[in-house]
Amino acid sequence: MQNDPRSHGLWELTAPPASETHALAGSVEADVVVVGGGFTGFSAALHLAERGSRVVLLEGKEIGFGGSGRNVGLVNAGMWTMPDELPGVLGQLYGDRLLDLLGNAPKLVFELVEKHAINCEINPAGTLHCAVGRSGLEELETRAEQWARRGAPVTLLDAAETARRVGTDAYAGALLDMRAGTIQPLAYVRGLAKAAIAAGVQVHTASPVVGAERTGKRWTVKTDRGSVSADWVIVATNAYTVAPWAEVRAELVHLPYFNFATKPLSPELQRKILPGREGAWDTAEILSSFRFDKLGRLVFGSVGALRGTGAAIHKAWARRSLKKLFPEIDGVEFEAEWYGMIGMTVDNLPRFHRLAENVIGFSGYNGRGIAPGTVFGKVLARHIAGEIVEGDLPLPVTEPMAQSFRPIREGYYEVGAQLAHLVQARI
Ligand SMILES: Cc1cc2nc3c(=O)[nH]c(=O)nc-3n(C[C@H](O)[C@H](O)[C@H](O)COP(=O)(O)OP(=O)(O)OC[C@H]3O[C@@H](n4cnc5c(N)ncnc54)[C@H](O)[C@@H]3O)c2cc1C
């Protein structure tokens, strides 16, 4: 993708090809124009087209170019925030509504994959949130109790059971969440795009939106070579926003995150490491994540950008850490490496914005975007179709709030991750 092996890495190597699309040229009429071709944009477009709307989707680069084609592929339920904290931040009504929606969001992903026969290595085997030390275990005990009280199928595993499921005794325990699973993310977003096109959505790639104008009751959204006139605009550009809705990007601090994929491991190693094929990550402050792909490549990631000095530092760290976690993986060889930018909000919660009359979007998923992006896209479609009134949306309307010292904080994350990985060889 974009001739850069460090943008979409393994996912680009193994995803089915994207549907053929072209840049927008000339003027087009629609009911809704969706800007951004990731999980949010394609889910919104698909669900709108299924409700009879004429939809045009404009993507600046390629399908899945942003976070949707670069992530780890953990289809998680809920946010980072502890369940009981949400009502405190959002109020009881929105807190409960968001928890309910996001707790069930993986189900929508699994249903869409089945309904549209999307070939994306889906595996609803659950996820393991692994405890680093006593404090990590205490955090998971709290999380387990709060989710269990809400009826979620989560189980706190002791150290012995965690070691059996993960294949290392590095962890003090783990939280098994059976609502969750893993996916090949670029294959999933390409599959959503294919389903949207089949439902009648007109998709244009290499078509960055450069401006938008209100003409009477309609919007005219412009690219370099064309324009779309529509009643509604969905802004689904999130952490990869390029103008004109720059305020969506200004609200987010970019946290870089990388992944390395090994060559397929031997059948013996695959029986020892994550034999149940759950997706896994840990409670460390600079967290690590690991999961298998369909062919038995272990995908191992953490915070950092694979550019400049970071490329060598993070690779050396990944080798050392994998060896420490799983000493049996001797002389690990990586087949792919890539990274992307996670959009973080100040309180780790997503946002719903009305950027102008009939210009709406969700953003700020804080590294939890596969299931939330899918479900928020459907919510946008239902709202525009008149099935959900604004007061019943899962989040209140808020103004985008630019984060202060954003470039400094982004630099701090990137350099801080390098320093941490220089000195640390995991646990
Ligand atoms: C490295 C990494 C690991 C992650 N791991 C996970 C994980 O394991 N599980 C999980 O749930 N989430 C994860 N996430 C988060 C998740 O990937 C994102 O939250 C999600 O992809 C956001 O989807 P989206 O559709 O809202 O935005 P995106 O996928 O970022 O799509 C936005 C699109 O808008 C386009 N665009 C921008 N400006 C314009 C414009 N002016 N005109 C036209 N198009 C434009 C961009 O090119 C881009 O394709 C991870 C993210 C990263 C980066």
UniProtKB/TrEMBL annotation:
UniProt key word Oxidoreductase: yes
Keywords attached to this entry: Oxidoreductase
GO cellular component, one term: cytoplasm
InterPro entries, alphabetized: FAD-dep_OxRdtase (IPR006076), FAD/NAD-bd_sf (IPR036188)
Organism domain of life: Bacteria
One Pfam assignment: DAO
GO terms of molecular function: oxidoreductase activity
Domain FAD dependent oxidoreductase: 31-382
Protein name, entry field: Glycine/D-amino acid oxidase-like deaminating enzyme
